[in-house]
Amino acid sequence: MSDSNFNEITSQLLVKNITALASDRFLTLGNDEQNMFEFDSAKELLDKAVLRLRRNIDGIGGVRTILVLVLNNYNEFKDALRWAALIKDELLEPENGDLYMFVVIKDENLSIEQCTNIESSDRICRKYIFRPGETVPEFLSRTFIEPVVGNGSTDSIIDPLSLALEKVSQQHQWFDSSEQERWKTALLSGKSGHELIEVLFKIS
Predict the structure, then answer these.
(1) For FRET with 17, which of 5, 121, 139, 144 sits at 20 to 30 Å CA-CA?
(2) Do you know which Pfam families this protein is assigned to (predicted)?
């Protein structure tokens, strides 16, 4: 993406791309629920949006909350974190474990190292930072929004997933073909957070 296009990115543009990419697997909840996320202390964050997604594979399941922000400089990220903390406090379990930040920082001095350092910390929530030279599709491909299969078939699983499961089976005898299939199904189900843990580790 050119610098001019990068500077044209807004939170609403990101929301539009996210909802389009996720439409086959997630339902976008209405704006009514977003009223609970209005805080006076976050008014300095001018370009932000809250996106609430529910899995539509089986019509049930938890809600994922995405905080979409476009910041003018790196210093504003502290304000963004405070906003995220306030929202996490408002969410009930297990939804507070499915909170994400999708952030664009329009700072020409921002480095890839700074982006990866922010992403490496799970404090408050999982974070995805738009990296220098990245396009919107490339950015979203690093998130859970990107589908891991094509055409709705588990036969078209992206190779890295199958490869990873196979490597685990080589190291652990209990991880046989049936167990691999169970994990594969769970990982492709769209579940996350507590829901996924309960399925994978058979917690009732």
Answers:
(1) 121
(2) MComp1
**What is the value of pTM for the model shown?**
0.68
Element (H, E) at 105: strand 99-105
Angle between helices 177-187 and 193-200 (to 10 degrees): 170
Write out pLDDT tens, residues 72-97.
989 899 989 999 999 999 888 888 88
Contact assessment for residue 62 and residue 192, using Cβ atoms and an 8 Å cutoff: yes
Greatest Cα-to-Cα distance within the chain, rounded to the nearest angstrom: 55
Residue 5 pLDDT = 66
Sequence-ordered list of residues with C-beta below 8 angstroms from that of 10, at least 6 positions apart, any chain: 47, 70
Composition of the chain by helix, strand, coil, percent to 5:
50, 15, 35
Distance CA 93, CA 161 (A): 29
CB 84 within 8 A of CB 108: no
